Amino acid sequence: MSERPLPLSALEHGSPFAARHIGPDATDRAKMLAQVGFGSLDELTSAAVPASIAGSGPLRLPQARSEAAVLAELRALADRNQVLTSMIGLGYYGTFTPPVILRNVMENPAWYTAYTPYQPEISQGRLEALLNFQTVVSELTGLPTAGASLLDEGTAAAEAMALSRRVGKVKQGVFLVDADTLPQTVAVLRTRAEPTGVEVVVADLTEGIPREAAERGIFGVLLQYPGTGGAVRDPRPVIERAHELGAVVTVAADLLALTLLASPGELGADIAVGTSQRFGVPMGFGGPHAGYMAVREAYARSLPGRLVGVSRDADGKRAYRLALQTREQHIRREKATSNICTAQVLLAVMAGMYAVYHGPQGLADIARRTHRYAALLAAGLRAGGVEVVHGAFFDTVTARVPGRAEQIVAAAREAGVNLRQDGSDLVGIACDETTTRAELAAVWAAFGVDGAHTDIDALDAATPDALPGALLRTDEYLSHPVFHQHRSETAMLRYLRRLADRDYALDRGMIPLGSCTMKLNATVEMEPVTWPQFAALHPFAPIEQAEGYRTLIRELEDGLAEITGYDKVSLQSNAGSQGELAGLLAVRAYHRANGDPQRTVCLIPSSAHGTNAASAVMAGMKVVVVATGENGDVNVEDLRAKIERYRDELAVLMVTYPSTHGVFEEGIQEICAAVHDAGGQVYVDGANLNALVGLARPGRFGADVSHLNLHKTFCIPHGGGGPGVGPVAVREHLAPYLPGHPLQPTAGPVDGPVGPVSAAPWGSAGILPISWAYLRLMGPEGLREATQTAVLGANYIAKRLEPHYPVLYTGPGGLVAHECIIDVRPLTKATGVSIDDVAKRLIDYGFHAPTMSFPVAGTLMIEPTESENLAELDRFCDAMIAIRAEIDRVGAGEWPKDDNPLAGAPHTAVQLTEEWTHPYSRQDAVFPGDTGREDKYWPPVRRIDGAFGDRNLVCSCPPVDSYED
């Protein structure tokens, strides 16, 4: 008798995605559970998660759907977006992403699944790519030091404002902003200035600095170049006068325009900021895009964010690394001057490669073509009797049409072109790399210009350029060979492959970083990001053209609110650090609205991530540190003492849950209640949310606000150090204080007291389809199972490694949460083998190191995530156990302390060809344990000398003559 066939309902949806996302299958999980001592995932998590916070019912989310079904849903959402030709400008432009860069960078997991290059020996490819980006920014801006990217132009300007106040001669005074600055930049500046007592003054600087501003004192000046309305003015008189007044001058400059116009550095600016979006990065409804900052040499060591520098390895070979890392907030904490914890690496790589592919001549040609279209557009309007406001411009034309602006913008929209309306009288039209003759014809028709005046070839013959001769660029730029060697697609393809091969990313193997959750970024989640209906939409397009995005955003916000137990979510923050700031600004505004402006104290455990303290300072709060107990928990006795001491001033407690030590603290509800009793709010840092989804909800166990990391728990890839999304989730009473946006009222509370924290209304909207897809693919059961498997993986590793390395902290039942910390300090004391030695030795075994020395110096924090299968977990554990055996051989004197496989790690292929003088064998060096010979990852450099790089700071492509040696 034949078996009964499976019903159609069990067959029609294909393999469930959760089984693709979660690494260990049922058999693997059974083995892992046996090792840990439990019979099921539910038994394990019931023992690990305190009963007082667990539960609150199943997640009310749509059931899981197949990959094909979710792609179909996303396609339907994408089709509800109307992608018209955008001529809005305002810092966002159409651009052509060269297909070789689209396919081999943006869509390539070798680039998008990599982690921040804190282990530089295995990050040489993306570090070189970032050095290219820094060189592009430095040479186009005419300033010697550029960073490895910031979050967007608006936040870059805000960082410049803070830098100006810090390094300038004038310590009080105002920050003076030209009225022709991008409106979203001005709004972000105001948001960032108000909590720290800075006054932003916006004034028309066409005729110079107003006397009343000069009399008040000015610590910094910001100029837009070209201006928002398109005007290209000579800023030198304003810059000279600002310097006489002791102010630091920032120029927000268009990189494409700088291929033709004199650089900010040549004009006398101290700082340049902006965005690299139009260098081949799609608009994506606002992001992600790589902002930039470049500074004069005196400010190099005060530059916020990351800086790639040139150093040398143990053989003296040139090698790249993140330079001056002590400037980063995660080390400086409450003394930090910025909370920047990430960059926009993937997008900076794309922008840098765009410049590599086109070279200086190609970039200038794109700029000339863009400008030429703008000049002809203006000439046609003038010929038709339309007043063009500015005589000198680069790509943007402003037309004055008294009382007709709305009508003209509507007519252009009917013809498939979005223009920018400024009041009832002005219309802005921005040309870009994608502009064609058809767009010019459509715009002229919308203005009612007769076709007799718009013969493009005739206009071309008769129309001069509109760039002022006194501001034309005369110096060379991008002369380094890298910008001249890759013109053919073959050469570019090979260059990208060569750099990718130097890196270690998730496509090679496990990245077991504690606190950073390097899980699967599934291809099905990534695919829609590059669809033009998502990628090509301008963030300030009429909102009715973004119905698909609005639905996706609303559904993602609702899903995240359900998962976290909060009432409202804002997706605007384009990094976790910005989400922290947004959450703290909401708390601050809430207290002020309740008549408690004195509530400014922010309690933070000593173990917290450095961004917590930095964000608190930026939100105008006073940081008070709470002690951590020997078991890693918050010291409740010290917390209660601090609460009592600051009862009338207490604004908020910031606490990470599970703790930064990787433990489910049992007293979290008690802690929340004590803070609330004193009138404070509770901020739960969402960095470790991967241990809670489906098991517990911060908004239900006592927290008032959290930021989430979509680039951790919700599958947006880390991209080599960015992009990220850091939404802020709040309970109902804080919802009126979420960030708003002046150019898009639907993006936040209308007329709320807190302005935007990002330049675009929904931040990095272009990558939100990734997290939306993850929730739809997994469904409520899949999300819970993923969390349980992550907790199982961490406990499995802890149990396997515990006989060889002490596990520093455990929670209920001797269990950890989704990560564990192993202590190397006793071994270091006994043998001299350092935590660095262990991290570098892991490279020889084919692994990226876990998180080093955080939150405790001399330890490794390990997070396997749910995506790694048992074979990979065992491979990692076997490597760590083998390394412990190597440490014992050093301790026994079998190998010298200064010449052993750990001290010499990582080992390169080149070393095998050289004379071998070490007391350990070549086999031990490069093929330790069971490391496979066939597909071994070979680091391109040996251990890098960080101190040398900091002493001899080089942060752009080395001069050509340096290659002679």
TrEMBL record:
Organism (species): Streptomyces xiamenensis
Enzyme class, broadest EC rank: oxidoreductase
Domain Glycine dehydrogenase C-terminal: 786-907
Description of how the protein assembles with itself and partners: The glycine cleavage system is composed of four proteins: P, T, L and H.
Keywords: Oxidoreductase, Pyridoxal phosphate
Signal sequence, renumbered to the chain: none
Listed CDD domains: GDC-P
Catalytic activity: N(6)-[(R)-lipoyl]-L-lysyl-[glycine-cleavage complex H protein] + glycine + H(+) = N(6)-[(R)-S(8)-aminomethyldihydrolipoyl]-L-lysyl-[glycine-cleavage complex H protein] + CO2
GO molecular function, one term: pyridoxal phosphate binding
GO biological process: glycine decarboxylation via glycine cleavage system
Domain Glycine cleavage system P-protein N-terminal, residue spans: 20-447, 458-740
Pfam families hit by this protein: GcvP2_C, GDC-P
Annotated GO CC locations: cytosol; glycine cleavage complex
Role according to the record: The glycine cleavage system catalyzes the degradation of glycine. The P protein binds the alpha-amino group of glycine through its pyridoxal phosphate cofactor; CO(2) is released and the remaining methylamine moiety is then transferred to the lipoamide cofactor of the H protein.
Residues that bear N6-(pyridoxal phosphate)lysine: 712
EC number: 1.4.4.2
InterPro entries: GcvP, GDC-P_C, GDC-P_N, GDC_P, PyrdxlP-dep_Trfase, PyrdxlP-dep_Trfase_major, PyrdxlP-dep_Trfase_small
Protein name: Glycine dehydrogenase (decarboxylating)
Names of required cofactors: pyridoxal 5'-phosphate
Stated family: Belongs to the GcvP family.
Domain of life: Bacteria
